Amino acid sequence: MSDSIIDLSRGLPKRELSVEVCIIGSGCGGATAAWTLASAGKDVLVLEEGGDYTGLDLTQRDGAMYDQLYMERGGRSTSDLSITVLQGRVLGGGGVINACDVVPIDDAVLRHWQTRHGLTDFSPEALAPYRDRALADLSANLPSEAELNTNNALLREGARALGWRGEVMLHNRVGCAGTGTCLIGCPLDAKRNPRFVAIPAAIEAGARFLLRARAVRIEGGDREQKTIHVRALDPLGHREQGSLVVRAKVVVLAANAVASAELLLRSGLGNEHTGRHLSLQPQLPVSAIFDREVRFFRGIPQSFAVTEHERVDEASGLGGFRIESIGGTPGIVASMLPKLGHEGKAMMTRYPNLAAVLCLIPDGPNGRVRLESSGRMRIDYETPDEQRQRYRDAAKAAARLFFAAGAREVHVAGARPLILRNGADLAPIDGLRFEAATVPFLSAHQQGSVRFAPSAKDGAADPDGCVYGTRDVYVFDSSGFPTTSSSHTMAPILTVSRYLAEKLVARLG
Amino acid sequence: MSALDGFSAISRRRFLHTALAASGVLLAGGGGLLALRGSAPSVTGLARLSDHQYRTLAQLALALFPPGGAFAFGADRVDLARAFDTFLRDEPEHNVRDLTRALTWLEYGPVLYDHRLTTFSHLTEDERLAHFESWAASDDLLRRQVAVAFRKFMSLVFYDTPEVWPSIGYEGPRFRKGNAP
Q1: What is the pLDDT of residues A4-29, one digit of tens each?
Q2: Of the residues A1, A337, B32, B160, which has the maximum number of CB atoms within 10 A of its CB?
Q3: Measured at the alpha carbon of residue B148, what is the angle toward residues B142 and B149, in degrees to the nearest 5?
Q4: A:339-368 residues touching chain B, CB 8 A cutoff
């Protein structure tokens, strides 16, 4: 496998490469496209900005791993610092650093895309085989009862006490030992992610991968032959140390819903929709302290979801909110707790008694990827009042779940964080305004910045993923989704990427 | 391996032009303001921070993670300011500029917002914490952004330090090279 993976930080093999298909990004979208296209006999080269981390190189330490596995060293955020935007930057992409949740696109979402966004080809019937294939490639399975850690069991207990709907989620772990460090990589390689499924298969079919390779511009996007300008990075991926060009007939962007749009903008490609309609699906953390030990930092962090308040229908797609457990290593947990100083230290001594959930809020496409005149990329995001109200509703629901499960106190972040000790009085949550940079919102499922639409009037790429105004420059990642596809995007991206890649193979002949 | 080895770390901070303008005005405030901050001990080996910026950050770290209390280990035992300097070494220039200016701004916070003739590094530990928390809860977005940025970085590095873990009931990574299953 190593001959097919070249790390540019160790030197440039050539200053110029020519291939038939150049794919930018090696995550769920890019790796799946590489596999599909290489299997059809296409000459495929994949560019990946990150390095290759597997096994015990995944050290389970916050500092080094956020630095190495995430875009912008874990610090990417919206321009007002309201939402931390988590995106993988490693061979295998987001699949390496996600919580392994497998939640396929609901048929109602696909019908919403068909009827409200004109994507008539995206019927549940057409996508069904690709969804099934995605589940098979992920080895999707249900965690066993014994694998539900205390944090998840408490959430289920709360839901049962309240009579609320919930479910154990499918995941793509095989051989999990419960390290609890899924968000900074699995040292046992127990995730059936692109790194261990699509990438080896793509290589077997002849695809090649360049690591520490940052695509900075595409030239000639409207011509038969494109030139991709690439910067070689240093071994830690911090600095540029060389450059090369890749010439390709077909370019597939699968760098993520921020980077794909950013590259198009830097290349002057696409139309006025490019970068717009970005969904971040903000996640609001709510934590609690129990008298009993929870030890949410061990076991599967996220296996149970309360879906009572989630809404999905053809008219509006995915809405409402869902609540899922989450655990974390000390550094990232401490950065979200409400107290500092001696009080903060005292709170962290209760780390084994902490429980936490994330409230996942499907959003309208309220965000935008832009380039400033200085060339800096920024992510702008507006939060409408309706969405703020759903934050409050979700925080209240999370607090009710915790108290129903026996929590001693519940913490909700805010400009002045709330510590609630009485489950019968959640009114203080009504006073939360969720102003910018007061709550540690996370985003792990960005979508929509290069929206698929049947006409250039409504979107940036056509329903086959081809960027309007270009010749064979495609987007095969979540950038194309017109609205939020699912509470978790791994399975949807695999589904859509293979679907579009097969269509491309048919066109290329 | 200590928390600082291999650490590079967290956040990109982007402060709006008005913040930069504010710090520019501050820096243009003349010798009187500069005199308030006094001298800072010389620190060897810094890549991007000035001695004064290092001092501001070190004093902030001590306020956020003071020695003693619930457990003995505090920011006096781990050099969070140097970790930040190490982090900055590999950051894009615009981030370095924004973050170092933010530190200068924080240093003069008591003058600008509390109308006191002293600077952040000269406050008592309790006053520093209260001042920083007032930024986190401020109506001013820019001050909240500064608070978010430094808090996140400091917390992540401090609690990624193995010496802290016994005090918080965390055993550390389950598998290390040499004890893999």
Answers
A1: 999 999 998 889 999 999 999 999 99
A2: B160
A3: 90
A4: 340-342, 344-346, 348-349, 351-352
Best residue of A335, A339, A351, A438 to probe chain B, by most B CBs closer than 10 Å: A335
pLDDT category, B181, cuts 50, 70, 90? low
Q: Which H, E and C letters describe A282-313, residue by residue?
A: CEEEEEEECCCCCCCCCCCCCCEEECCCEEEE
User: Residue B168: closest CA among chain A residues belongs to which residue?
Assistant: A349
Q: What is the pLDDT of residues B105-127, one digit of tens each?
A: 999 999 999 999 999 999 999 99
Q: Helix, strand, coil % (nearest 5) of chain A?
A: 30, 25, 45
Within a domain: residue A21? yes
Instruction: Provide the token pair at A258.
Output: 């921020």
Q: Is residue A63 part of a domain?
A: no
Among the partner residues A66, A181, A437, nearest to B145 by beta-carbon distance: A437
Q: Please give the residue range of the domain that contains residue B142.
A: 46-168
ipTM: 0.93
The residue from A396, A417, A443 where one domain ends is A443
**How many domains in chain A?**
2
Phi and psi torsions of A10, nearest 5°? -95, 5
pTM of the model: 0.94
Domain of A110, CATH number, reads 3.50.50.60
**Whole-number Å distance between alpha carbons of A38 and A23:** 11
Which ranges constitute the DSSP H helices of A56-197?
62-69, 94-97, 107-117, 124-137, 150-162
The answer to the question of residue A77 being in a domain is no
Residue A275 dihedral angles phi and psi, to the nearest 5°: 95, -20
Which of A443, A465, A484 is the C-terminal boundary of a domain?
A443
| Domain annotation covers residue B102 | yes
- Residue B19 placed within a domain: no
Please count the CA atoms within 13 angstroms of the CA of A435 that sit on its side-chain side.
17
